Structure formats: C-alpha cells, structure tokens
Amino acid sequence: MAEQIFRVNMSDLSTKIETVPEEWKGLGGRGLTSTVIAAEVNPTCHPLGKHNKLVIAPGLLSGTPAANSGRLSCGAKSPLTGTIKEANAGGTSAQMLARHGVKALIIEGKPTDNGKWYSLHVHSGGVTVQEETEVIGMGNFAVVEVLNKRLGDKVGVITIGPAGEMRMTGANISIKDPDNHIRSNGRGGLGAVLGSKQIKFISVEPTSEKVAIADPEAFKTANRAFAKALVDNPISKALGQYGTNVLVNIINESGGLPTRNFTSGQFAGHEAISGETMHDTIVARGGKPKHNCHAGCVINCSQIYTDLKGQYKTSGFEYESIWALGADCCVDNLDHIAEADSLMDDLGLDSIETAVAFGVAMEAGVLPFGDGAGICRILREEVGKGTPLGRIIGSGAAAVGRAYGVTRVPVVKNQAIPAYDPRAIKGIGITYATSTQGADHTMGYTIATNILGVGGKVDPLSKEGQVELSRNLQIATAAIDSTGMCLFIAFAALDDATCLPSLIDLLNARFGINLTADDVTNLGMSILKTERAFNLAAGFTNKDDRLPEFFAEEPIAPHNVVWDISDEAIDSFWDF
Amino acid sequence: MAEQIFRVNMSDLSTKIETVPEEWKGLGGRGLTSTVIAAEVNPTCHPLGKHNKLVIAPGLLSGTPAANSGRLSCGAKSPLTGTIKEANAGGTSAQMLARHGVKALIIEGKPTDNGKWYSLHVHSGGVTVQEETEVIGMGNFAVVEVLNKRLGDKVGVITIGPAGEMRMTGANISIKDPDNHIRSNGRGGLGAVLGSKQIKFISVEPTSEKVAIADPEAFKTANRAFAKALVDNPISKALGQYGTNVLVNIINESGGLPTRNFTSGQFAGHEAISGETMHDTIVARGGKPKHNCHAGCVINCSQIYTDLKGQYKTSGFEYESIWALGADCCVDNLDHIAEADSLMDDLGLDSIETAVAFGVAMEAGVLPFGDGAGICRILREEVGKGTPLGRIIGSGAAAVGRAYGVTRVPVVKNQAIPAYDPRAIKGIGITYATSTQGADHTMGYTIATNILGVGGKVDPLSKEGQVELSRNLQIATAAIDSTGMCLFIAFAALDDATCLPSLIDLLNARFGINLTADDVTNLGMSILKTERAFNLAAGFTNKDDRLPEFFAEEPIAPHNVVWDISDEAIDSFWDF
Fold first, then answer.
1. Residue of B46, B388, B544 lying closest to A389 (CB–CB)
2. Which of A196, A348, A569, B538 to pair with A130, CA 20 to 30 A apart?
3. Same domain flag for B232 and B250
4. In a 3-state reduction of DSSP, which class is residue B375?
5. pLDDT at site B177
6. Domain total of chain B
7. Mutate to test the interface with B, among A160, A193, A402, A550 (most CBs of B within 10 A)
C-alpha cells in the first residue's frame, strides 16, 4: 500500500486521506509524531482541548519482516508535562497500520457533544468514525475481549481504560498484543488526550497487504545479519531469560535502586522481587518465562506471570514497574506487585507514574510503606471508580505531592523519575533533566554504559563524561524510536559492529535510498531540536531542566552521594 | 522603637535581631517583603521547603496615627503560583508590630522534626519560639479565643487554620481584627508556607510604645488633609454604606460579572446577592453595616453579617467572595454564601481561590451549580477534615481542573481569576496576565477607570489604552502596598488633587525626608521590576503572561466579546 496520512477531525467527525508531504517522507515513529505536533499544534494550547492533536505512527520499518520492528509511536502535547511527548509500545497494531499504508493517523479537534463516545476503525480504504456505547467504562481486558468477538480475533486494538476516559494525567494508551494482553504507550498521559477526543478505542482491520520493499534481496540479507546481532548479544539473552527485571539485583548492587520514596539506594527485600525469583516463580507455576510483545521480536523479554493457581496474572512485567511498586513502595511481595501491575494494565495507567505516586502518597501517610494490598485496593476501589483519592493518584506523583504538601517529590517536568537514582547513577540524571519529555529513562538509557558496561564504561559516581554519554544516547534513541525498532536493539548496536550497519541496510533496502550512519545521527539530532523548540515555544526554559532540590541535599546510601552536576554542565547538553 | 529586622530560623529554632540594612530603610510592606525574598530566596526552590522564607512587614506608615495605614504584608515564594508573592490585610497586628520596632519578621528554615508545631511571640525585646500543642488543629476563631484567654484580649494574632496546617495551596494567613474576627492575607497559599515552617501562630504582645515621627506637626496636618480626602470621596462613601459588595449590581450591569464558571457575564440572581440586599438584610437583622478592619480606617467598608437569629455569621464579607460563591457557582442565597465565607475564614482558606475552585468542580459534576448547602458541607466535612476531595478543593481552581480533566479553568499562573471578566473589562485582563503574582485584581484595579470612571475613563470593551492603564495602576499599587495603606485610598488618590500630596507629606513627616511624586512612582516601578526579575529567575517567561485559551474563543454574553488583546500588546506592559 502507498503510504498516506489518515486524518480524523473529531469536531465535525470528518475524515480525510492525504498525500504524505515531501518533508515527512523520510520520517516514521517518533520522528514523525514530533514533527507533526511541532508543525500543527500550538505549543501553548491546553493539552486536553480541541487544539491538541494525537498522532499515531508506525516506525519506518514497521510492517516489514525486519526483526523487532513492531513498535507504535503515539505523540501529542502531554497533559502531564506540558511538553511535546512521544511514547511507543509493541503489540500488533504498528505492523497492521503500516500494512494499511498508514504513515500517520492524526486525530484533531474535539466533539461538541461532551456526553458521547466514539471509536475509529482503520482499514485500507481509510478510517471511519462511529459512536460507541458498549465498551464505555470497561477495563482494557474486557475491551479486547468484546472487540475480538465483535470484529474477529485478529483485529488490532488501540484503546484507553477508565483512566483515559476520566482524562487522568497518568493514563496511557494501551495496545493489544499477540496474546490479547496489554502493551502500554505509558508515559505522559497520552491516554487522557485520546479520552479528551472522546475516543474509547481504535480498531485496525486485519489485512493481507504487504509493505513495499524496494530491494527485497538486500532487505533479507540485512535482516539476517541484524537478527543475528540481536540474538547473539549477551544482554539480549539475559533479557530473554529474566526479562527486564534482571535489573533488580544489578541496580540494587550498584546502590542506585531508589527505595522508600527515594530515601535509600538499596532495598532489603530485593531478592524477593528480583528477576531470578520471578523467573523461578513463573517456571514453578507453569507460566511462560519468555514471550514476545510483537511478532518478529527475537529478544522476548516479556513473560506471562501466573498466580498460585496457574492463572494468567500479568505480562510485560517490567523492571521499572516492579521497582516502583517494590523498592520505592517497600512491597516485597511479587504477587501483590503482579496484581497491581495487572490492575494498572486494565485501568490503562502508566505503571511508573502511578507507582511512584503511591510512594509519595506513602510518605504523606495516605497508606503505610509496604502495603501492597492497600495499593491494589486503592487502584480497584478509588482509581477505578474515579473517587477524589483515585483522581489524585491517577494524576501522578507531582499531583500527590501538591495535594498533600510533600516536598520530596521525584519528578522532572512533572513526570515521575523512574527506577535509577540519579545520585548514584549520574548519567541517567542528565537524561532526566534534559529530556524533552520529562524524567524518562528510555530517552537516553545511560544505565547501559554506567552500569552494564555496554558501549564502553562511564563511572556512574563520577561527574565526568555524563553529559556526553546522555547526549549521544538521546540522539541515537530519537533515531531508533523513528524506525519502529524496540529500544533494546541498542545493546547490540553499541557493542556489535555488524548491528547498526545492518539496520541502516534495512532502511536503505526498504526505501531504495542511501542513508549513512551520519544521516541517522543527524536525524536523531534534528528530532531532539524539533522537540526542544516546541518546548521553548511552550514556555519551558533551562530552569525546567533540573532535578528536585532534595537530590542535591540528601545523600543516598550506600554511597552517600548527592546530585552534584552543575546547572552549567546540564545546560551544555544542548551544545550541538 | 528603633526599627530592626527580627529573624527566626526554624531549622535550629534560633532567633536574631539585626540592624536594618541601609538599602531596606526606605522600604516597608510589599516593597520590603519582595526585596527580602528577591535577595534571600533561591527563585527555583521548593516553596514548602527549607529554602523558602516568609517575610512579614508592616507598611511605612503602619503604627502611626495616619488614616487607613494598618495593612500588614506577608511575602514568600508562593506554593500556588511559583512566583514571588505578597498579600496584605488589615487587623491589629501591623500597627502592633510597627510599634515594637519590627521592620520585618523573617522566618526561614524548617524544623527537622516533622511532628512538632511551634508558635512565635513578638515583643519589643525580640521574638521567642515555643512549642505549641493546645491550638493545633483548631479553626481560626477558636485560636483567637484561646489566645485571648491565654495572653489577654489585646494580643495580636497572626495564625493559620487547618488549611495552612495541611499545607493546602489555597491556605491564607489570618489576622485577628479589632473585634476578634478574621482578616485574610488571602492569595497565593502563604498559609501553607507558614504551615511548612510548622508555625501555627504568631502572637504580638500589646505595647504602649509609639512609632517615632520626625515632624509631628507636619504629620498631623498632612493626616488631616489625607483623611478628609478619603472621607469626602464618593466611592469611599459607597464602600462605607454597602461594602465592596456594592459592585455586584454595577459589574452585572457592565456585563462583566463572571457567572457559571465564566460562561456568562450576567447573573440572573444578582439582586439576591447584591450590596443593597446585603445592607438591608444586615439592618433588618440588627447586624452592623459599617465596620473597620483596623483602627484608624475612615472608610469602614467592612460589616458584621448576622444570621436570622441575629448571631454573628461573618465579617469582611467582600464582593469578590460573594461573586465567586454567588454568580460563579450560581448560588443566589446570601445566607449560604455567608456560611461558606465564615467556614473559609475559620479554615483559613482564600475565599476567591476556593470559591472559583468550586465553580470548576461544579463544571466537572462534583456538585450541581447553585448548591450552596453542598459547598458548606464540602468545606466542613471534606476540606476541614483533609479528605482527598477536601485537598483537591483546598489546592485551588487549577488543581480541581487537573484532577477532573476540565479545560475551562479560569487561572493565570495557577491562581484563580477573580470577579471581573477580562473579555468584558479588558483592562483587568492585562492585570491578570502581567501581574507578577498570578491573576489578582488588587495588583492593578482597572475597574476604577474601566467601570467606575475614576481617574478618567477607558472603555472596558475597547483594546485601546488598557496596557497603559494597567501599567500605571500596577506601579501605583506597588507603591501604595508599601506604605501600609489600604488600596481603597486609590479612589481618592486618582480623583482628589489633595490626596496623593498629603500621603507624600505623611511619609516625609514620618521619616524626615523629601520624597516627590516621582520618587513614589519610581518606588512602584522598582518593586515591579524586582518581582519580575525573581519570576524570570524562577523560570517564568512571557508565555506565562497569558489568559486561558477559552477566553479568546468563547464570546461572553451580553456583549458577545472575546479576549482579543494580542500577545505583543500584553508583552509591551514591561516596556518601562
């Protein structure tokens, strides 16, 4: 299918199919969502108003047989951070949308009738808007079940749970995965943006169409080399065995595992929640320790976590969610954590933002540290029902801090700081501070080099080299996020000389072009600058590129270090 | 008494008496609080953390016999707006502090023990810190009652209610008035700052000391002329008869009375809540239609509103509070409004911020428009008890908008827009947008000239002349706020040629100096620039000097006008 722009205007419920503008042709995923937002959205608009747009774009290689290319990007002005925002996830929709020729789906405007809900249905002929009543108020698991019945098992589903319907700023956009479970475009409250458009879900018709490949033979060759580089990589292997949760013990050992709302860098209960324990538990209960979130993934970092009776409990059970509910909230019971993770999947809530919000709520005395059952109860009874407490928690960590007058609130640009303490792992602090999207480890994952020794080694406790490290990784990540590739290709790309050239060969074979490594770097830099320009026009300044003051004043055990990178050093990030 | 700086460090509970630095000698009230904050507070600090300071300063003329000179300024970095903030009110403390030689009381640091509460006691020898248990958790009326018993009826009291103890960003600082009722330093959540210092109240010992006056004869002559100008002014007279609530009918007639969360400019129930109805009700019930908030006031805009049984219900029952609970929440029952006003006085909540928050909550469906009894119930049962809903409401209008995903949220810099619609009265929109302290009518009260015809006439519906009008008034206001004078002297100052010269004569006679009118203007400009510089250093930009987008897009009845002043025109405000 030829690539086209699918556009939906919710103000008058009209749809349009547009030719892809010349300047957007070389873009996909984050590169495209950020470019469209920067071009079409007023940076100072209300994120939940009619002037914001939600842009959904498969990556440049999505829909092809390229390994690990099934990530779908969603972009908008974020109601959580006020910045430009892109979040991507696996699931089945990226590849299906690409095969329908969807370069991007742009959703704009806002219905004039506040009471009505709608759905979109994407097919090769275009996109249709329909009023929806049946699944309104349902959790994500029920939505997938109903739509599978209504539209067939193979239908693609992009949906919001009750959190998005209630326009909570912790709401994510959820995508059906190959096993009818949930993948989450997790950060920045993009689910609230879809909710503000009064769209409950987007269904994608199954298709036998294929994405055109300019040089199929060269593509095959490149893909073989690329997949081999991924499979051979030792970190890929560890991710396949233990999932991302392999990191609990590693980060605890490094002293950078934020514990008890960021008051310590090590958690006494780390063994109980570690990837090794999780793996053994899954195996003992007959769950699935290895699982992929989208077809074509060769790493398989996901898993199916089952309860004591062997029933499905959750999947895509990530280190960051387990850390946040575990160490940060002091819950050392993996079943409670899995239950909470599943509830967040069902409600459609960012599990990092929400769990860090619970950590702040615990500091405020709303519930005791360690109360995993209490977390589950609040998610079910309060957040799910939209009570005032539920809305405070569902609005994220900063909202909890404001409501309860807490000063120790781990956020940057109003977004929760994830699973790596910036005092003990300084590179990631630079990423949190300078990211165009608020605190987000995936924007420039310095843990690779600071802790895992991938792509060299930069001492996590030293001030030296952190800005350069974060900058290089943020540039590379912006480019990778545009290809539809999972970020976990970065481990191979940093350490295996065949990986990045194969990725470039894939792009060249797909489009019949001649990109070089420099072109890819330039693409990454250009995306960051586009995003930064949007934020500056929205009123952000370098004063927003700062960590909360407690990081500079409270030393964290066991290294007893504070955040000590100067404002000038942070600001030098943008010298490129 | 010689003027000195009284300083309290709550981190180690130490106190110090300091000589007034040369550059602070010519400053008082807002000029001094803003100068101290700008000099000593890191603009990016957490407003509830140990780096913020609360500065309390009487005006330059406070403590003297000058008419209307009893306003007390409190300043800090605001936890509501993030900007520099000054709020002033009457009551008995300004004059008492001045007579004790307190040029400013600076409270800094933060106790290391989170569980303890303290009080300060100011006397001529200095200030002492004491642990406090008895009045913790009490409402303001009870605090005054207990302290009157403990320290004698004449004691000055500056306190916070439960809202400030809970560090709600809608909390004000409350001051005992001559009748043991409450005056409020209302805006910007300064009560939360005092609460964050774990100080429940500041008591001020009665004193027979006098403020030194350099030329007593000249002072007396000037005061006579000044008081006459105030008393003779027709607006002073109207304020004395009907209180500020005389404005309900006037602003309704102008089409600028924001109604039903700013969806209309006129309120069908305006007669029921008007100043005229209030006056007649007070007279019929044997209340007090005229009352002063501090000794020496010759305008007497306050009143004692009684219930059906003739019992005290509330005082200082202002137009802005009555508008917000009345027109904005569609409550046309003055008794419900008085009950809510009294509850807010007791809880220590900004009645503008909180009532506008109720309007947004009504739009969100939390309670129906018009439900005055519901407002009282929520104040008593939710805000007073610190429930999650109470904390959302007590955090102000923007917090309610964020929690419920409302896009029509009337705030600037996170602070609620008060009682004059900027679409129908454009001058005040410039004040809301450009004020260094978030939306605040008192920062540059263009209603005087736009509606009341004081100081000339500028058509409220025209774009012409509004920036100049707001600029001139904001400069004059910054100067007036430094003298300890009530802002209502401005009506006489604008229209009576004898008023401003007498005020300058008062200052000159007090200090033995030779200020000119230009000096006063220069002081006002300098204060605004100091405040603006603080905000810029805190990360604010001209993007923050904007009204919410709905004002530009939703025409307001009856004039069917939108906010149409360009960004460039707004930004030209600072061209001085």
1. B388
2. A348
3. no
4. helix
5. 96
6. 3
7. A402
